[in-house]
């Protein structure tokens, strides 16, 4: 009984938001909508309106951030892990990851403007990559053990090139962690709001921004629809990611 | 060859993780002391003194710490209750799947959901009216934009609890808590003593770094207090953004002062985490 109750409580946000997104009218004090409609969902599925475009932009930004920070984090975290000043470097990696994205954004905006990247998708991707890259560095620290180093030395002793080391040894050994990092950094980017507002200058309309736009317009039905679209990819990723998620603990 | 790749790797790390942050913080510092920006008036500490001397920053800091501590306390209590209540079976069956749903909620969505639930015309008020537990809708006490930031704490707790429950459940296995609890009972401890003196302390100690990181994340949160918080006092990120986005350019140095104070606080907390881990 307690298990069912907790499961229902966990599913409540999705149930309420889904009901709101399908509601034609939900006047006070009704507990369920008085009329249902699928028109908003059909509009999104047909690619009409701003939400479908925002979904596409959000996917593009998050996938790019995840790919960039995973590849860069994987290659460079090794040098952080083996460095004699490892603790200092790791502390520096924690800073962007632990700072508030809004405060990071306020400070980064000047750099983005100077680089001509403010208000562009590329600027948002780069700003979010700085944020997600710190996480990737911290995550990959668990990978670079003495055992991995022994493998590397063995490959070099046997005459293997750096390319062969990565392609034949390190990437296959780190496959699970690479996937985990990709998923997690995708989610970090997918959940972003403050950094996107600041560096995107309000012109890069991701789904998170759309939620606030609709809330500001008191358009709760569309805000709920945008929320549902925001939940689906992370729910699928987290579920697929389930077996890796707490493995590092 | 290998040392060259090491240098390149380290250079890439510094270029991506350190240089932009360092340059941004330096710019923020110069702006805050009147050495950069459109209205640069020459070196002075006027904005630092104004911000530190105003009650706004301290009430904002107090609110942020209150919310972060409240979320860590509530999330830990609920997470422990779930992990210890459903010992070993937490991530199985329908519950195992449902627990991952709140983890998929972005802060913006959690804030919107709590807003829809807890306002005067929200879902909770409607259910209470239907059940006859509320006679007049105007008597419903809205828990959003409230004095004690209950709505903000609830939204963050909604996001944090499943994560902490799964974390504690995993630590319960990895730290061999069950065996240690059995040992304590074999040595004469009661069920209650075993729980409070063995199981809970071990789990809290093992999860210390994660709890500290949760505190830091909530301390700097923006989306949730933006929707569920009051106009004054505001949490640190909301205050910074408000001062930064104002048309009055004279407020911008104040925004940078708040941002730098927050950055200093977070860096001190991370340094504390590092010291704790080194000592462990």
Q: Level of helix content of chain B?
A: over 70%
Rg calc of chain B: 23 Å
SSE string of chain B, helices as H and strands as E: HHHHHHHHHHHHHH
Class from secondary-structure proportions of chain A = mainly alpha
The oligomeric state is heterodimer
Poorly predicted regions of chain B are none
CATH architecture of the largest domain in chain B: Orthogonal Bundle
- State the end-to-end CA separation of chain A: 30 Å
Question: Which structural class do you get from the secondary structure elements of chain B?
Answer: mainly alpha
Sheet of most strands of chain B: none
Describe this structure in words.
Chain A has helices at residues 2-21, 39-45, 49-81, 86-98, 101-114, 121-140, 146-157, 162-173, 175-190, 194-200, 207-216, 220-245, and strands at residues 23-25, 35-36. With 249 residues, chain A is mainly alpha-helical. Chain A has one domain (35-245): MetI-like (MetI-like fold, Orthogonal Bundle), CATH 1.10.3720. In chain A, helix 4 crosses helix 6 (121-140), helix 5 (101-114) runs parallel beside helix 10 and helix 6 (121-140) packs antiparallel against helix 10. Chain B has 280 residues and is mostly helical. Chain B has 2 domains: 1-44; 54-279, Orthogonal Bundle (MetI-like fold). Helix content of chain B is 74%, strand content 0%. Chain B has helices at 2-32, 46-53, 55-85, 93-98, 100-103, 107-118, 123-131, 150-174, 177-186, 191-206, 208-219, 223-228, 236-245, 252-279. The two termini of chain B are 37 Å apart. Chains A and B meet through helix 1, helix 3, helix 4, helix 5 and helix 6 of A and helix 1, helix 4, helix 5, helix 6 and helix 7 of B.
